[in-house]
Amino acid sequence: MSPRLTFGTAGRILRQLRHDRRTIALILVVPTVLLTLLRYLYDDNPQLFDRVGLIMLGVFPLVIMFLLTSVAMLRERTSGTLERLLTTPIGKVDILLGYGIAFAVAAAVQAVIVSTLAFWLLGLDTLGPAWLVGVIAVGNAVLGMALGLLVSAFADSEFQAVQFMPAVVLPQVLLCGLLQPRDRMPGWMEAISDVMPMSYAVQALTEVGTHTDPTSTMWRDLAIIVGCVIVALLLGAATLRRRTA
Amino acid sequence: MSNAIEVEHLVIARGKRRVLHDFTCTVPSGSVTGLLGPSGSGKTTFIRAVVGVQKIVSGTVTVLGHPAGSKPLRDKVGYLTQAPSVYADLTVRENARYFASLYGLGAKQADAAISDVGLSKAKDQLVGQLSGGQRARASLACAIMSRPTLLVLDEPTVGQDPVLRNELWQHFHALAAGGSTLLVSSHVMDEAGRCDRLLLIREGHLIADQTPAEVRRSAGTDDLDEAFLRLVQAQDTAKAHDTEKVG
């Protein structure tokens, strides 16, 4: 592993993103618009917006970064650039961490803008500090990125890569406790939700929303998210094969 | 070291199909060796084995004294894939600088490589907006900039205009004169005459490993296209003969 190659790769990915103005606009505008919609949907019930809007601050970055990374990595695999990279001095870990850092930066920018809007303009209220919401949002984005990198190995085309979003991310959205509290789910369903990383992301956000100080549950949830990121990245590294058939 | 590449009894399969059959050859250091054969003959598969990204069934590929694809080779071997492998959403210069950084090189070497392939005027254009030939050259710039000891080029001149093709071949020979070894694949026989040595390949079999002069002499014709045809026919006849004897 070499910091020079890792940061060089992160810089290259951010430069690619910079040339794609429409994608940048979508990353920033879509969550802002959706959150605004949600705010006026729950116009007569601000408490509900405080709960759902907060969770959405965690769900948006995960979904968006998942999509971005899975397609970006698939392109890297199918365009031959990955094959070429693997014949140069760069290591697999440098490539993966480069992606991680680049999309974490993109996610941080998104989280700051969307959270600022939510707290200042839309009147989102949490008992805990806003910066902690931002930290968890970035953590979620990095989780989405790591999952996206992993599933890109199982897609041969961009059509397939995009289909992994409903397959991998939507079940987590359904079972994460947003639509129905997890302890009110049937046992087997709660068990499934127990092994889904997004459940912990949502729980961590809810903890910040309902407690003035960071709770131990929140720290544990954050640790689980980081653990899932590491596992997904390691599995992702295993799918970067130097020799292919 | 006298041989940059030594290949012994290399067998490669893709799925159930054998793509290379018991391939044995050498590429001498400091030469420009052409890998020639029709499309689908196994050229790209062979090249991928040399740079160490191809799964092999059996045999050995030794490059500059190391197993192909091993760590000590990563900054000594330059590789141009058949389809241009540069980032379409970056400019030529941004691509060159990124690949330069992988070898610890700076902007100067990146710009020099861009000018070597004749892309200086287009260096601030996005690769995605370039023509096919320009895109291939952008990819080539990223392969040659590190002045690798061994440069492996998979069809580098496809789609280039004749003047530019001439310049590229002059550049390849200049690199070889500077001590690099080049392995260049092509399916165009008129490029064979520009090589110091030829590996002729057909249906995964090596049918000649000679200098162009030797190929011409053994086939009894000055036209390399015709020579290739005669070598193929001679081999087919020999094979038919063998089958008869066995039968």
The number of helical runs of chain A is: 10
| Class by alpha and beta content of chain A | mainly alpha
Mean pLDDT of chain A: 91
* Gyration radius of chain A, rounded: 18 Å
Described by the principal axes of the CA atoms, the overall outline of chain A is: globular
Topology pattern of chain A, helix = H, strand = E: HHHHHHHHHH
Order of helices and strands of chain B: EEEHEEEHHHEHEEEHH
As a whole number of angstroms, the C-alpha radius of gyration of chain B is 19 Å
Helix content of chain A: over 70%
- Main beta-sheet strand count, sense and barrel state of chain A: none
Report, as a whole number of angstroms, the end-to-end distance of chain A. 26 Å
Helix content of chain B: 25-40%
Structural class of chain B: alpha/beta
Distance between the termini of chain B: 45 Å
Give a quick set of tags describing it.
heterodimer; A: 245 residues; mainly alpha; 78% helix; 0% strand; globular; B: 247 residues; alpha/beta; 6-stranded mixed β-sheet; 4-stranded antiparallel β-sheet; 7 helices; 10 strands
